[in-house]
Specification:
- By secondary structure, the chain is of the alpha+beta class.
- The protein folds into two domains: 74 residues, no CATH class; 108 residues, Immunoglobulin-like (Sandwich).
- Helices cover 34% and strands 34% of the residues.
- Strands 1, 4, 5, 8 and 9 form a five-stranded antiparallel beta sheet that branches.
- The N terminus is likely disordered.
- Bound molecules: calcium ion (2 copies).
- The site of one calcium ion (CA) has 6 residues, from loops.
Length: 188
Amino acid sequence: MDVLWGINCRLWSMDTLGEVLWMWRLMWMTIRMQEEVAAERQSMRKLAAWGLVLDSSCEIMTSDLALLLLVLSSVSTARSQLNLSNLHASDLPSDIFGTTDGYVKVFCGSASLGKTSVRKDTVNPWWSEKFTHFQAQENDVLRLEVFDDDLLFDDLLGVCQRQIKLGTHQHDCYLKKGGILHYTYTLG
Ligand SMILES: [Ca+2]
Ligand SMILES: [Ca+2]
């Protein structure tokens, strides 16, 4: 009797172990499937965020893809070249440390295009530097920061900002701390 019970018990144990393993495998597969579905949804959300229109079966429609490519190509062709030149200033304010030592930092959109050299001891500086940006777009913000070079901390004399337009334009910008910055740019 004990022997038979022992055999039955072992068989029961084997069956139970098999069931547990099978259940564990089923749970593991379920979790993996959920992860894959979540990842798939995440990638679909990213595509949707890029402006792609998805159909009911979550497949990108051919016409939408063609439209996207058309938009992307038109964006790339909208890039223009910006040339900035003829930078000079008049009546820059001096301070107790002496006559102004002016220079200008140049930015276009999120790009920094560099800065001019320092024109020492003059309130009417001219800068020979020219700045070029090949990835400019109409309505990008051209930003010019005029500084007085000092021993420790340079003084910001004023900031000139404007949205650039196609063509050649000449501007006079009145600086917050006094003086005028003159410049010319061409976008095209
Ligand atoms: Ca100075
Ligand atoms: Ca100063």
